[in-house]
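Hello K.,

You asked for the raw outputs rather than the summary table, so here they are, unedited. I folded two proteins back to back in the same session to keep the settings identical. This is the first:
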Amino acid sequence: MNSIRLHQLRFFAHHGVFEEETVLGGWFEADVEVFYTTPKQIQALTDTVDYVKVYGIIKSLMHQPHALLETLGETIIESIFQSDERIYRIDININKLNPPVSNFSGKLGVCISRSRNHS
């Protein structure tokens, strides 16, 4: 099993259901693990999944506002699947670092795991 991991990616974005979130924005953190197959030993970039390409997909979609983090996560997963047919599973965690919750300390987020449908 092979995977690439992108951890603690930070983005300022405008996701959320409350007006203050969509207007003021906030900080988000994403962790993504992409599992893929390869028929041989990895010796060149073409033998693996390019993490720079995966990062570009995540960055682009993080800057498109979504009301729900679940919808954002699903959109990111689908776009990464479309980028390389060798990818068979993706795990993503997206956290809102400053959620608009009274007297809250910490971060809130979603975790989504999806496997490619090989029907």
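The second followed immediately with the same parameters:
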Amino acid sequence: MSLSALEDHLHAPRGRGRLSGGPHTGAAGGAACGDLVRLTVALEADRVVDAGFDASGCGAAQAAGSAAVELVAGAPLLEAARVGAEEIAAALGGLAPPKRHAATLAADALHRALASAAAADAELPASAERTLVAMSGGVDSAVAAHLALEEGEDVVAVTLELWSDPANDGERSCCSPQAVAGARALAHAMGLPHLTLDLREAFRREVVDDFVREHAAGRTPNPCVRCNGRVRFEEMLALADRLGARRLATGHYARIHRDGDGPLLAAAADANKDQVYMLARLDPEDLGRLHFPLAGRAKPEVRELARRAGLPVADRAESQDLCFLAGVGKQGFLRDREGATSSAGRRAGAPRGEIVSVAGQVLGHHDGQRDYTVGQRRGLGVSAVEPLYVLGKDAARERVTVGPRSALATTAVGLEDAVLHRDADRVDAVKLRYRSEPVRCRVEGAPRRGTHANLSLTLAHPVDGVAPGQTACLLAGDRVVGCATIG
């Protein structure tokens, strides 16, 4: 009797129970539908030498796990990385919509397993033509991949999974499980192998925990700068090494300038999209392996390139939220993580702290200094004859000081955790916020290049609302020659 492909995999499942408990296992499902697929792979150098699966729930989930094993066992890693839900469904003779989710689960589980194996065990021969492209699923990264393909590069796509929380709006987050699945589908549609890096633990430790601590201390951190400098690029470059890729390309708007001392970040051609501030913590030693193909292009041109290439994300709106705040907002996120102990000794609904004038007069109350930022005007909850701005915060006393805008102005800025890529006498300007214009300045004491626990800046003219915790991007013309945290 002739069996259908689906029935064949149900009657003679490939690799069921094999490699169970192996180190490189991915799982998907197990929630509302009840179906769960686990895939395990064993990788040696550049090949998936074995694979196995376990599944529970409907028959389609079990068959999809078996089909995924058959597709990747013995395959080169980059060929296995081309396998998605479409290929798994096709191997089962096609799946009707009610059963289609089984192929999606198997693909998700497979790629989690491949990601773990690739990050730990991949050893592909070095290739002068191979480029690893960071793909978020948006138009900028898609065009970066498209341009690399047009250059004749052997392109591999990678997407980072940084945060997974049911409370978040995964569709608005660039690094959620939903975003990973979307980026993978886009990469496969472009004919690219796709890998995922699961960096959720490192991201929580290095970025989210720091974000919570800094706000509790009365500061205003910049998590994107920290993520780029301490998580994202380091891990992607390590993967590029394992894949034998000579460079890592991203869809950031930035240039790389080389002088006699080596490469430096430099401003992009499109000033409205320039992202060097967000990349300011990158190690210059890594810049030689980075490629920013959008450096000389404006955003409308990038969208037009995507339309001409038939990329489905050509008109996709940009995400404006921090990935771990999407759908919950900063205030809600921080309150959820403060815990019940933060309210000890305070009756339910009671205000948390005082809003005071420069003279110490109590003008009102608030529910947490972490809801305020130096320089903030709106939403203070107090009124006066002239507009009031947040001048400072005392986290230990939960006190927010407000006053006139004139009291915000300063020409002296203290810096912490500073690194200079060139001697300080080269610094002629500083960006104190992402969207702010550079301010002419000098670094006091003319320190040499290297790391410094503290530095002092003198600004050429007064600036309002310099917020402790934000990043100071030190410039020489349009080049980044240093970076620090405002103290």
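The chain has four domains: 5-121, 127-308, 352-407, 409-486.

Happy to rerun anything if the numbers look odd on your end.

Regards,
P.
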